[in-house]
Amino acid sequence: MQAFTLSRKPDTADALWICEHKPVFTQGVAGKPEHVLHPGDIPVIATNRGGQVTYHGPGQVVAYPLMDLRRAGYYVKEYVYRIEEAVIGTLADFGITGHRVAGAPGIYVRLSEPASHALLPQRPQLRRPGSPAPTPDFTDVGKIAAIGIKVTNHCTYHGLALNVAMDLQAFQRIHPCGYVGLQTVDLASVGVRASWIDVARQLAVHLQRRLQP
Fold first, then answer.
1. Mean local confidence (pLDDT), 145-167
2. Cα–Cα distance between 109 and 120 in angstroms, integer?
3. Summary count for the chain: helices (H), strands (E)
4. What is the C-alpha separation between 67 and 154, in angstroms, rounded?
5. CA separation, residue 185 to residues 71, 114, 118, 170, 179 (Å)
6. Residue-level pLDDT at 31
7. Would the pLDDT of 109 be above 90?
8. Backbone angles phi and psi of 92, in degrees to 5
């Protein structure tokens, strides 16, 4: 990703890489070592993306959009919003409602009613200028998708990870995304039986649609 991004020219076509990783913990640039509890035999790799520690492994769809945002015509905040919307759309295809939690990037699922469309009380809301940032509230939610990006010269790399059917025990070896006690879920644990390839295809369709200029 770094080599692709550094070698880009103004006319280099954007790309979308979809993959599945072997077990690995990755630390973002702000990652704190105390959030890695007992990695055991799973390697811990330092990266230059944003965010804290997370886990990648079999049964998880990882997507890396490699885009020129200047050419696309929108800024980083909207880029992240569009990625989140792609994940929410993918979850909806499988009957699950994705949610945002104020102050905590990523997409979450209501644990008590994964298909419920009711708004979360802890959803992001308009804040007055100068007001303090919200403290994330993870009551009745589990994280199903993590987002960590990097932008260099207006070009994006790294991306997102959507949990399909994986060994969730690995997340207990860390504080996921730097949050103590945050529960991590996948589609399988909220009652959806879907193959990796089916979810990957749907996510790719939504990303291609949402990330259009």
1. 97
2. 10
3. 4, 9
4. 8
5. 35, 11, 19, 12, 14
6. 92
7. yes
8. -60, -35
Q: How would CATH label the architecture of 2-210?
A: 2-Layer Sandwich (3.30)
User: Token pair for residue 59?
Assistant: 């049964």
DSSP 10-53: TTPPPEEEEE-PPSEEEE-TT--GGGB---TTS-EEE-SSSSS-
Mean pLDDT (the chain, rounded): 97
Cβ–Cβ under 8 Å, residues 144 and 91: yes
Neighbour count for residue 132 (Cβ, 10 Å): 8
What pLDDT score was predicted for residue 30? 86
Q: How is residue 151 written in tokens? A: 């932008």
b/e map of 148-157 (b: 16 or more CB within 10 Å)? bbbbeeebbb
Residue 89 has pLDDT above 90, yes or no: yes
pTM for the full predicted model: 0.96
The order of strands in the sheet holding 60-66 is 15-19, 60-66, 155-163, 141-152, 104-110, 98-101
Q: How is the chain split into domains, by residue range?
A: 2-210
Active site residues: 177
Sorted by sequence, the CB contacts under 8 Å of residue 129 that are 6+ apart come out as none
